[in-house]
Amino acid sequence: MAEVRPEEVSAILRKQLAGFEKETDIYDVGTVLQVGDGVARVYGLTKALMSELVEFPHGVFGMVLNLEEDNVGCILFGESSEIKEGDTVKRTGRVASMPVGEQMLGRVFNALGQPTDGRGPIHTDKFLPIERKALGVMQRSKVNQPLQTGIKAVDGMIPIGCGQRELIIGDRQTGKTAVALDAIINQRFTHTPEAKALGIEPVYCIYVAIGQKSSTVAQVVDKLQQEGAMAYTAVIAATASDPAPMQYIAPYSGATLGEHFRDSGRHALVVYDDLTKQAQAYRQVSLLLRRPPGREAYPGDVFYLHSRLLERSSKLNADLGGGSLTAFPIIETQAGDVSAYIPTNVISITDGQIYLEPGMFNAGIRPAINVGISVSRVGGTAQIKAMRKVAGRLRLELAQYAELEAFAKFGSDLDKATLQQLRRGARLVELLKQGQYVPMTVEKQVVSLFAGTNGYLDEIPVSEVQRFERELLELLELKHPEVLTGIASKKDLTDEITASLKKILGDFTASFKASVKA
């Protein structure tokens, strides 16, 4: 046997050692320095990423929010009372993500995608980060496709398009959530075979409840189930009893789920109810992380908090599938003060606002939409031609009525034209009243507004306007369905449809007036 020389042994050992590199891993584990109120400071996570998920003991997860020289500030998504000083924290290596997919529809879950409805786990195979950079201008297209809410006052005067961001603003208990829920319930029509035949694409909905009572969220879910809307709706609940970090990230989770539908060429609607509570949760978290307070103790980036969320709503161009994500942020005002800090921030980010007024609500005008300061920056491009024709004069006549009504209170003698404007305005206001959870299809809205703006209601007593509308629509459904289907399919008031509508309205108005007098 040949003798092995010592230099050969050392060469073999050197070669083996060269391929053996073991670096002591001191980067992926840290130690809790301080914990409390849903916030923890951790020492040792020197390679942590911004927004990275980190794992604490007892199955509690946190998210990195502050990267400082000697420690990392984390917000906790679970019960912080079980975590104590000296506990070990592990990096997960991934940013905070959210499961997405069709399986999320019909379910209630928290901001991390964990189900809270007691119906077992949600099996999805795709995760997306909750914070994503909004797409640039080149990836977007013009907002020109209507998103019908089923509310006459909105679809007629404040039209909303797929990909728009429309703020719903008002004091508490003025019907803000009701407007958003009506819009969700109205999307059930987009999932029918009739809508498919008319070329209307389905709209998937996400309702994000932030800082609300659990009982309120349960009532909303129950109502959506009764109306058959949960089949295409997902509910993300970060209730008042949840930690502030959960309330802070919930809207971003909603946007991520909406982007999943948008990026696959479909349409989605996301309701953030409400962003005032999100701003308050973010202020709480920021102050606990020792971020410097600014105006009203909100941190300096509170505008960016909402702008980076709402910028994610968009209508994609045809190359990217033409999908859209429409946003309905809700903001609660104090004593009607729309010039406060958070309301003005969100007004400047969105493409219009629906302002709900307590005075109108208490006077029985519901939905209590103040047409004077409500606006849509998209306008008529998000309306079908038929609606544009009938609603053109509506806003003007209501604005003139509001001005003349204040003037008429002085009791001075009014000329015939002014009295006529007051008569018309009072009937239009009555016509725009609508019950909760009874959204109306666009063709029925067109017929109602056509009757109002063309003077067929002028001789009808105000108290009978609602009955007039109800009986007119019943008549059209039973005896003249071709008028409604004509408006729905052609999306326009052709000369033929207008002529038949005028004849039907003339005959019906005459018989209705006779029945009222009798």
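The record above closes out task 2.4. Task 2.5 opens with a second protein, given below.
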Amino acid sequence: MKDQIMFKASVLAIAFCITAVSCAAAIPSTQITMSPQPLSSKGWFWKEPYQNYAPQGVPDFDQQQNNWQKIIAGPNGIIDSTVSGDDIFNVADNCIAPGPNCMLESVAAGDDLVKWAFCGPVAVANCLWWFDSKFADPSGTPGDGLDIYPMVEDYGAGDDHSANNVPLLIESLAQTMGTCDVGTTTVTMMTDGITDWLQTTGLDIAYDLNAYTTPTFDFIEGEIERSQNVMLLLGFYEYVVGDKVVDQEQPFFTFRNDNLQTITWNDYQSFVPTVSRLDAIQICLVSNGPPCDIEINVYDVQSGTPIGTTIMNPGSLVSPTWVQFHFDPYVSLTPNNTYYFDVRQVLTGFHYEWFYANIIDIPSDPYPPGQGWLDTLGTDPLGYPFDWTFRTEHYYPPPTVERREGHFVTCAGVNSDEFMIAFSDPAKDVANTSSTNHNDAINVSHDIYNITIGTPYPDIETEWWLPDYSTAYDYCIVEHAVVLCFVPDEEAPLVEITRPIKALYFFDQEVIPLPIPVPLVLGPITVEVNAFDNRSGIYHVDFYVDDVLQLNCTSAPYTWKWETFGLFIYNLRVIAYDNAGNYAPQTMAVLKIL
């Protein structure tokens, strides 16, 4: 009896298999369409919001929580504090880091200072959360437990996109990057940590990660508008100057003075420097009328073009007073060359008198006499050679800029027309100063700053800086950029119908393989499919019978119970879609009876 059934089934299968195989159904047109990222040639461009888990665009998580701090040395340069708990003393950076549990347990002592330390992990958390939201369930909401994109996972809060999961994500990143062990984050630590994170989550093939030193503003603008995630390392620099030191001087006078004129090269003095810069000139003055501006010009040849100019109103000077005139920028000098400066008042009349000494006052005058008077002889009205009072000064040591701190931010938007940029800043909430918990991605403070192209000081290497970013120091410059870039997935996923195979099935049980072109199914059967995509991941798998959709399966295992009555050869078709909108079909002819 069994042999008869097998024979009849084989005959039916062979009879219909040619027709079944030749039936080619069109692939249904329904598929995912990813929203293109709009580009902006002018005005503001904001990173795209995702209503599921990033409704305000790039999140703005806060580093100032959970005691994510470190202890640094105060003015004495020595760590006076004692290490407690699992905190770690970082000898190289002379600080106490919070250790593996991420919470500082040591107490600052002496003149030590406590600083927030997790700007790097927070900047990366803003970035990863945004990407995870981009590829998550578009209808999802925080707490629904539906998101399966592995960029951000549940680290113990019960749901990957709940606000309670944010500190756990940040601490996981701090541990991965090593921030908790050293108390700071370098660009190398950040890129190594992100690389490890992508490899662990299986997303390394889907993203490119690059770091750039002194990137241009145009480059950063382009990366933001391509909707990549850009993290910037800002450097805070302080302008440091030494004391002004006198190089050359003629300080003598015995109340000999003469009224300043309004023309150049009327009252002038020479000097021979021993240093290479001139930062200030002092002269001794007294008022003989209402105050006005005084101009000092410096020359490298007599009657030449000024190589430096300074103008200042000294105010009312009731007695002989040394007045310091500053040069900004400083005047470059060649040591042992002769230079000249003249002094003039900008208004006619009697305003100021400049003091001088003649050979009677200083018989051993260190400067050649005759350096300027109403005539060309260089003598005073009594006929004596003279010199004006003066002191040339320079900074020693020369002014420098010193880097004091670094700080990571995540870019949230850019305005190329007005040279402005917006940050999700781990430490600042300028645009939204409310105390709302910023672990909630609904609440952000996208702080906007002006851009200045170039460098604020010749010794600082940067392409642009932020003149209105408020710090305790003089300059905020852009040092590095870390760019995490999603590589568009243009490869179709892999899909295979693994059940049924070419065999006889009786009420969902495989009976015996058959040497026929198609499976023979008696009664209901569970169709099983393997689907895989190593880039963006599988979004869903659709099951069709003769082009009629039977099931949209959104999670593995991808199965469907085929229970409808049949007495024919049918086209069983499955289509796997990935999260980038690519799809791959597979079709199988199935002889179904009952």
